[in-house]
Amino acid sequence: MDDAELWSEFLEFIERAPAAPHPGVLFEGFREELVSQGLPAELASEGAAHVREMSRDRSDWAAPMFDRIYTSDQAKFSAEPNEFVVRMIADTPAGRALDVAMGQGRNAVHLARHGWDVTGFDVSEVGLAAASRAATAAGTSLTAVRSTSEAFDYGTDAWDLVVVTYALVPVTAPAFVAMIASALRPGGMVVIESFAVDGEQPSRPVDLDPDVLRIAYDSFFTVAFEREVAAADWTLQAVPIVRLAARRPG
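The structure assignment produced for this chain is given below.
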């Protein structure tokens, strides 16, 4: 089975897979699917591992994957706003905020409740619907947009705050950094948190190298830079985490 066939089978699998608490369960489910099709266990494991690796450079799996996760009543992620985001905006006047890949809207709803005019985008229809319901339940509102990061129009001088937490976007890519710099208003802030690269564990698409992250945003004014082992918003386990808050000069 070549890469194209393997990837196509994986996409078909997650489209019909049951709800799952986190991506790892679905990758393991795909391995079991390959075994059920008669593939030897060793080859099935290799195929599932290769799909994980391919997922680093592809995005078409994200929508069905996170639809499955956001449907689960046992999902392994925090429903509370990100603590770093909460800290960074505590003394910041409310303005226009963009939540990149906002999922179920935990950060977006918190911002809206504190007076921010919030737009959030995501590829998951299930996540966007949950975010809209959460905003209504909190007595506030937000603008929810179904889009990929590549297709979303970030605008120019459009935002006072951009939030990027555990997002499947190229956070440190020069083109993405330049786009964020252009999208922020002068003095606007970007707040980032994700898993840090851990040499002892296989890397995930959302893992960030702390040194690369810091260098990528070195044209910004650094407000805070943190790296520690702490409970991650996703997985809820103690792992290396990296955080950056930085302002566009001006």
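Interim note for the steering committee: The first strand starts at residue 96 and ends at 100. The mean pLDDT is 94.
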